[in-house]
Design brief:
Number of strands: 3
InterPro entries: Stress_Response_Reg (IPR051711), XnlR_reg_dom (IPR007219)
Subcellular location: Nucleus
Number of domains: 2
Shape: globular
Number of helices: 21
Largest sheet: 3 strands, antiparallel
Domain Xylanolytic transcriptional activator regulatory: 236-309
GO molecular function: sequence-specific DNA binding; zinc ion binding
Radius of gyration: 24 Å
Strand order of the largest sheet: 1-2-3
Region (Disordered): 1-36
Length: 598
C-alpha cells in the first residue's frame, strides 16, 4: 500500500407550474441493477478523509472534488515519491493568507471612522463597472431600487445620510467597483478593501436581516463572492450558505404567486434565487463538499424574458450548475453509489453531452478570428463546461499517476490496453488545453479576469492536469511548449495586476513542475530514453515565431501548431460516454489491484 504523505493526516469521520423545459430535471442514470458492484473506487475519495495542517494549529479538510485539494494531493504524492519524505507545509498556500484585510473579524469595537465615499459621478462609474463585470453572471442588486436609494443618499446632507441595509450594500458594491477599475493594488491590499471591511463591521444580526430578506440575501451573495476573490473559501461558503437558507426561508425556491406578491417582487426573488443556487453549486464544488439543496425540491421559475436581458446566459449557467450534481456522484462516499466510479463518469459525461451543441450554438467562440472580439460571457460558460469535463475525468489521471509512481516501466503499456480509458484521459487533457486556449484569447484582448476567481480556477486546474500527463505518457499531450509558455504568461498577467492568489498558485505549480521534471529525469537516466516532451519546455526556449500571436507580441494569426480542434459535439461526447463498458471498469480495477496502489 502506498502511504499517504505525512503532511496529510488521515482521520476517521463519523402546487404550481414545474420549471420550464429549457432547464433539464432528468438526467441519464443507469438502473441500479445494470452494473454489479466492483472493487474499483475513486482514489480521491477512497479510505478515510484527508486533512492537512500548516502547523499553526488549524486543520484543513481536503475536499473530494476541490481543485485546491486535488493539486495538493498530487504535489504530496509526487514529493513523497521523489524525496522519500512528507511534503513540508512551509512553502504551501493555505486559504486566507493572500491578503491582509487589516481586520481580525472582531465586531466588539468597530472603527468609528467612516470610509471615504466617492462623488456621485464616480459612484455611478463604479456601479456600472460592477454591472459589466458581474451583472451578466450574477444578480447582485435590484437596479431600480438601488439607484433610487443612491440618488436619495447623495441628496441628503453628510450628517443626515441613512445608515441602513442599503448603505451596507452600497459599500460592498463600491468595493467591487474599485477592485474592477484599479489596475494595481497598493501596498499589497486590494483596492476597496476598507469599504468591504466597514460593511462587514456594521452588518447586523440575522434577526434584523430576516426583516428584509431580498436585500439581505443580495448582500450575503455579494459578501460570498468578495470573500471568494480574497481566497477566503470557508468564509465564502458560509455566507452563501446563509444566503441559501434565507432565500429558502422566504420561499424563493418555490413557484411564488405573482398575483399575491406582485410582479416586481417575484421577478427579483427569481433572480436572487438562481444567483444563490449558482453560487452554492460553484462554491460547494470548489470546497469539495455536498450541495446544500436537492434539485427535486426546487420549483422556482426563471425570470420572465421581458424582465431579464440575460435569460439565455442564465439558462445555460443553471444547466451547467446542475451537471455538478452528476459529477459529484463520482466523488461519493467510498467512491461509488452502488456503481463503479468509472460508470459514474459515463453518466456525468452523458449529461454534459446534452449541453455541448447548445453551448456552441448559443455562445460560439471564434478563437482564431482576428476581426471579432471575444464575448466575456461566452468564454466564461465554455470555461465552466471544460472544467466540468476535467473534474469528471481527472480521477483516472490520478489513478495512472499512482500507477506510474509504483511501476514506471509498465504504466504506458498498461494504459494502452484499454483505448476507452485512454480516450477518457485524453478528453480530460483536451479540455485543459481548451481552457488555456480560451484564457490566452481573453488575455490577448485585455479581457482576463484578475479579481474574480473563475479564470484563475480554470488556469490552475488545467495546468495541474497538463503537468501530470507527461509523467504518465509523454505522447498524451502535444504542443507542450506552447501551453506551458501560455499558462506562465497568463499567470504573470494576473500577478502583475496585483492578484496575490495567482502568485501563490503559480508558486505551487512551479513546485509541482520541478518535482515532475525530477521524476522524468530519473526515468530517462535509468532507461536511457530521449528527453520527454514535458522536459522540452524547460530545456529549450520556444523558437521564434513558433506560436506567434498578439499575446506573445507576434503577428495576429496563431501558428497552425498552436490551434486546437474544437470541442466535441454532443454526438461525439455521447459516443465517447457510451463506449465505456463494465469491461473497462473491471480492467482498471484489476490494474489497481495488481499494482496495490490503494
Amino acid at each position: 500500500m502506498v502511504s499517504k504523505p505525512g503532511a496529510i493526516a488521515s482521520l476517521s469521520s463519523a402546487s404550481c407550474e414545474r420549471p420550464p423545459e429549457s432547464i433539464p430535471d432528468n438526467y441519464h442514470t443507469p438502473p441500479e441493477g445494470d452494473y454489479p458492484e466492483s472493487e474499483l473506487v475513486n482514489p480521491l475519495v477512497s479510505g478515510p478523509p484527508a486533512f492537512m495542517s500548516p502547523g499553526n494549529g488549524r486543520t484543513y479538510y481536503l475536499g473530494t472534488s476541490s481543485n485546491w485539494s486535488f493539486a495538493r494531493r498530487v504535489l504530496s504524492a509526487v514529493h513523497e515519491h521523489a524525496h522519500k519524505e512528507s511534503l513540508p507545509t512551509e512553502a504551501l498556500v493555505f486559504e486566507g493568507t493572500a491578503y491582509d484585510l487589516g481586520w481580525d473579524g472582531s465586531r466588539t469595537d468597530p472603527s468609528p471612522e467612516s470610509p471615504v465615499i466617492p462623488t456621485l459621478d464616480h459612484a455611478i462609474f463604479l456601479i456600472n463597472a460592477v454591472k459589466f463585470r458581474c451583472g451578466q453572471l450574477y444578480h447582485l442588486f435590484d437596479d431600480s431600487d438601488f439607484m433610487k436609494s443612491l440618488y436619495s443618499f447623495y441628496s441628503e446632507g453628510q450628517r443626515t445620510r441613512p445608515r441602513g441595509l442599503w448603505y451596507i450594500h452600497f459599500l460592498i458594491i463600491l468595493a467591487f467597483g474599485k477592485m474592477f477599475t484599479h489596475v494595481k493594488y497598493l501596498k499589497g491590499k486590494p483596492p476597496g478593501i476598507s469599504l468591504f471591511v466597514k460593511a462587514l463591521q456594521i452588518l447586523p444580526d440575522h434577526t434584523l436581516l430576516y426583516s428584509s430578506p431580498m436585500v439581505s440575501t443580495e448582500i450575503l451573495c455579494c459578501i460570498a463572492i468578495f470573500y471568494q476573490a480574497l481566497d477566503c473559501r470557508t468564509a465564502s461558503h458560509n455566507y452563501v450558505g446563509q444566503a441559501m437558507r434565507m432565500a429558502m426561508a422566504h420561499g424563493m425556491h418555490t413557484c411564488m404567486p405573482v398575483t399575491e406578491l406582485g410582479r416586481h417582487s417575484v421577478e427579483r426573488c427569481r433572480k436572487i434565487w438562481w444567483t444563490v443556487y449558482i453560487l452554492d453549486r460553484h462554491m460547494t464544488s470548489i470546497q469539495g463538499l455536498p450541495q446544500s439543496v436537492d434539485d427535486r425540491f426546487i420549483q422556482a421559475r426563471l425570470p420572465s424574458p421581458e424582465g431579464s436581458e440575460n435569460m439565455t446566459n442564465l439558462d445555460m449557467h443553471i444547466k451547467l450548475c446542475r451537471s455538478i450534481a452528476d459529477i459529484n456522484a463520482i466523488y461519493a462516499t467510498d467512491g461509488r453509489l452502488n456503481r463503479t466510479f468509472l460508470l459514474n463518469i459515463k453518466g456525468a459525461l452523458s449529461n454534459l453531452a446534452g449541453l455541448a451543441d447548445d453551448l456552441n450554438k448559443s455562445f460560439p467562440l471564434r478563437l482564431e478570428a482576428t476581426d471579432n472580439g471575444l464575448s466575456r460571457v461566452a468564454a466564461y460558460l465554455h470555461l465552466f463546461y471544460q472544467q466540468c469535463v476535467i473534474v469528471a475525468t481527472r480521477p483516472l489521471l490520478f489513478c495512472f499517476l499512482k500507477i506510474r509512481l509504483e511501476s514506471a516501466e509498465t504504466c504506458v503499456q498498461s494504459l494502452q490496453k484499454s483505448q476507452n480509458v485512454r480516450n477518457l484521459i485524453k478528453m480530460c487533457l483536451d479540455s485543459a488545453l481548451h481552457c488555456i486556449r480560451i484564457l490566452h484569447g481573453l488575455a490577448s484582448q485585455g479581457l482576463l479576469e484578475t479579481f474574480l476567481t473563475f479564470d484563475l480556477e480554470s488556469l490552475f486546474i488545467s495546468t495541474v492536469v497538463l503537468l501530470i500527463a507527461p509523467a504518465i505518457d509523454c505522447q498524451l499531450v502535444a504542443n507542450d511548449a506552447w501551453w506551458h509558455a501560455a499558462a506562465d504568461l497568463i499567470f504573470n498577467d494576473m500577478v502583475e495586476a496585483g492578484n496575490q492568489i495567482a502568485r501563490l498558485r503559480h508558486s505551487e505549480i512551479q513546485q509541482l513542475d520541478e518535482k515532475l521534471n525530477l521524476l522524468l529525469l530519473r526515468q530517462d537516466q535509468s532507461s536511457s530514453e530521449p528527453l520527454s516532451s514535458h522536459e522540452a519546455h524547460t530545456a529549450a526556449p520556444i523558437e521564434e515565431n513558433t506560436c506567434s500571436d498578439p499575446f506573445f507580441g507576434g503577428d495576429s494569426t496563431p501558428a497552425a501548431g498552436c490551434a486546437f480542434e474544437p470541442s466535441l459535439t454532443s454526438a461525439e461526447m455521447m459516443t465517447m460516454a457510451n463506449s465505456i463498458e463494465l469491461f473497462d471498469a473491471e480492467w482498471v480495477s484489476t490494474m489497481m489491484d495488481n499494482h496495490a496502489i490503494w
